[in-house]
Amino acid sequence: MSEARERVRVLVDSSRFQWLIIAVIVVNAAILGLETSPEIIEDAPWIVTVGWLTVGIFIVEIALRIFAHGTAFFRDGWSLFDLFVVLIALVPASGNLGVLRVLRVLRVLRLLSAVRSMRNVVSALAATIPGMASIGALLVMLVYVCGVMSTHMFGSTDPDHFGDLPSSLLSLFQVMTGDDWANVIRPVTDAHPGAWVFFIVYILISTYIVLNLFIAVAVEALDRQTEQDNSEVIAEVEEGEDRMLAAIADLKAEVASLRSELEVRATRPD
User: Tens digit of pLDDT for each residue in 78-110?
Assistant: First the structure.
C-alpha cells in the first residue's frame, strides 16, 4: 500500500500532471462561459458533456490526492478549497439546493491553487489583512471627520451633496474615487472660492497617501512571501543534496568494503 501511495504521490505532484489539471481548469472555465448562452448549448449540446467530463477529471484528481497525501490533504487550506469547489459541482440542479449551482463558477478559481505564483499572491494578500485593516480604519476616520466638517461648512450651500452627514459621506466617497468629482464640488467652489483647498487636501490624503500605504503594505507582504518561498526552495535543494551526499557516502563504504574483501581473498592461499 505504501509503495502504491508513493507512486500516486509522485504522479499528482509531478509538473506534467499539474499542467494537465491547469489545462482542464481552463477548458472548464471556457465551458462555464459558453453555458450562459442557451443558443450555443442548443447548437452544440456536446459542450455539456465535455463540461461533465472535466468535472469527472476533477473528482479523480481529488481522489488521487487524498489517497496520496492521506490526512495531510485535509490540513492544507488550498486542498480543502479544491475539495469544496469540486463538491459544489455535484449539488443537484433542482430543488432547494439548486441555487448553489451558481457557485460552480468557483471552479475557475482553482487556478489560484493550481498555479504556484497565484497562490503566492493570494497568500501575501491574506498576510496583509491586519495592516490593511489598520489603514482602512484610518481612511474611515478621515472620511468621517471630513464628512462632519463639510456638512457644517457646505450644507447650506449645497444641500443635495452636503446637506446631512450621510450625503456628505457619500459625496466625499465619490470625490475620493474620482467619479465625476469635479461636478460634485463645483456648486461649493462656485459659492466659496477657497473651498478648493479643503477638497484638494482631502483628495491628496485620502486618494494618494492612503492608496500608497495600501500598496506599500501589499508590496512588503509580497517580498516576505517571496523570501519565504526562496527559503523553502533552498531548504529542499539542501535536503536533496544531503540525501545525495549520504547515498554517495554509503556507496563509498560499500565499495571500500568490497575492495577489502577482494584484497583478503587475493592474499588468501588457494
Answer: 788 888 888 877 766 555 555 556 666 776 777
CA distance 205 to 116: 36
pLDDT digits (tens, 9 = 90+) for 240-255: 676 777 777 777 777 7
Q: Long-range CB contacts (< 8 A, 24+ apart) of 163-169?
A: 169/143, 169/144
- CATH architecture of the domain 115-270 equals Orthogonal Bundle (1.10)
Question: Collapsing DSSP states into helix, strand and coil, what is residue 115?
Answer: coil
Which triple of cell numbers denotes residue 162? 452636503
Biggest alpha carbon–alpha carbon distance for the chain = 120
CA distances from 53 to 64, 214, 243 (A): 17, 42, 41
Task: Give the single-character DSSP code of 37.
Answer: -
**What distance in Å separates the CA atoms of residue 265 and residue 270, rounded to the nearest whole number?**
9
φ/ψ of residue 37, rounded to 5:
-110, 110
Distance between CA 127 and CA 65 in Å, rounded?
27
d(CA 80, CA 74): 6
What topology is assigned to 2-114 in CATH? Four Helix Bundle (Hemerythrin (Met), subunit A) (1.20.120)
C-beta atoms surrounding 36 within 10 Å: 9
> Domain residue spans in the chain?
2-114, 115-270
Q: Which amino acid is at 33?
A: G
Instruction: List the helix and strand counts (H, then E) for the chain.
Output: 13, 0
Q: Give dist(CA 267, CA 244) in Å, integer.
A: 35
Helices 129-154 and 165-177: angle between axes, nearest 10 degrees: 120
The distance in angstroms from the start CA to the end CA of the chain is 49
